[in-house]
Structure formats: C-alpha cells, structure tokens
Specification:
mainly beta, 7-stranded antiparallel sheet, 1 helix, Alginate_lyase_2, Alginate lyase 2 domain-containing protein, signal, ConA-like_dom_sf
C-alpha cells in the first residue's frame, strides 16, 4: 500500500472515530470554547451575614468547601431569601452569546434539598437554572432528574448557556445529561456552593468545588 493510500486510510478512520464520538455525546463540552482567565477577584463570596467567612467556607489545596445550616441567616439583613454559602462569579455577567461554566463538585451523603449551581438572572423569575441535589440525585429545580447517584464522589459539571438560542445544556463527566429552554435574557451570571431549596432541605448542607473555569464561544 502506498504512502498516499495509508494517509487516506488514517484520515478516513480519524473522521469516522471523531464522528462516532460526537454521535455518542463523548466530544468534550469545552471544544470550540475559549477559556476566560479567572483571579480571586472574580470569586465573590456570599455567606450568612452575621458570621465570619471562615465559619462557613474554606479554601485549601485547591478545594473550596461551602457549608450552611437551615437555621442560618440569609446573606444580607434586608432579604428573606434562604441561607447560603456561595460563590458568585463577578466581572463576567452576560446578556448574550454562548457561555460555559465548568467545575468539579463533591456532595457528601445527607446533603439534600440544596442548590449547588445556578445561573442567576432571567427575563421571568430570579434564575435561569438551579441544579439541586435531592437524596444524591441532581434535579432541575425540583422537577426533572438530570443525573443520579452523585453522593460522595467528584464529578465534572459543565453548563452551557446559549443565550441567543435560549438553550441551557448540562453535562456530567463529559456526557450530555439535560437540555432545556432558559427563562429569557437578563443580567446573567454563574454561582456555585450551597443554597437551601424552598422546602425540605437537610439541616446541614455542604458542597466542595475545585477547578472552576469559565468559557465563552
């Protein structure tokens, strides 16, 4: 077999292999995106207003740990929202385009009824997306199941928000798990940590995060 034939065969196999990965949903969700550099100034921390940060948050060896209790105060005195300890990505608010959040998350057993990741802002309502953990399963708000059996292990979460098309896509460990229409354009930004759900939260709630990244296409 000549060199040109060998090259053509290799190219053909590469195309077939790549296409197969795409059809199986195994292409990396960050393909075609540009990573946006982050510094600590991009990580705005929210916690119960009457407590020092160290009582509800730690950052050690690259792992950010968030915890909160159901009887904690909200993040500021003049709000009736539920207790939280969260990062709000600052300086990267958006209202158009295609954006992506990536992070590795860990949720310990017995943490339930808690939002671990949000897209804040919408034309209708306060948020475009809430990903909640209920008894180890991830749900879209309290409705559709996104993935199951997520307790006590690190998993990679990627959330793509195509504002121009009004679509949100969720990936777990590189595999697409969920897609839904958003709530309309608004002043949008990403959040992660722990935020008590409207009802039936566990008394103690915790999530851990590492390697948080933001991408744009």
């Amino acid at each position: 077999m000549g060199i040109s034939c060998c090259f053509s065969l290799v190219l053909f196999l590469f195309v077939i292999f790549s296409t197969g990965l795409n059809l199986l949903g195994l292409a990396d969700p960050t393909d075609g995106f540009t990573r946006i550099p982050l510094t600590e100034r991009n990580f705005g921390l929210q916690k119960p207003f009457n407590l020092p940060l160290k009582d509800r948050y730690s950052y050690h060896n690259g792992v950010r740990r968030f915890w909160v209790y159901t009887n904690d105060k909200p993040f500021k005195p003049d709000t009736t929202t539920k207790p939280r300890t969260e990062i709000r990505i600052k300086g990267l608010d958006y209202s158009s385009g295609i954006w992506q959040f990536e992070g590795y998350a860990y949720v310990p057993t017995r943490t339930s009824g808690v939002t671990i990741m949000q897209i804040h802002g919408a034309k209708v309502g306060a948020t475009s997306l809430q990903l909640r953990i209920y008894d180890g399963d991830m749900k879209y708000y309290k409705f559709q199941v996104v993935d199951t059996n997520l307790y006590d292990k690190w998993f990679r979460l990627n959330v793509i928000h195509n504002v121009d098309e009004g679509k949100i896509i969720v990936f777990i460990d590189g595999v697409q798990k969920f897609e839904i229409n958003d709530q309309g354009p608004g002043d949008l930004y990403f959040k992660c940590g722990v935020y008590a759900a409207p009802a039936n939260s566990s008394n103690y709630m915790e999530s851990r995060w590492r390697d948080i990244k933001i991408y744009k296409k």
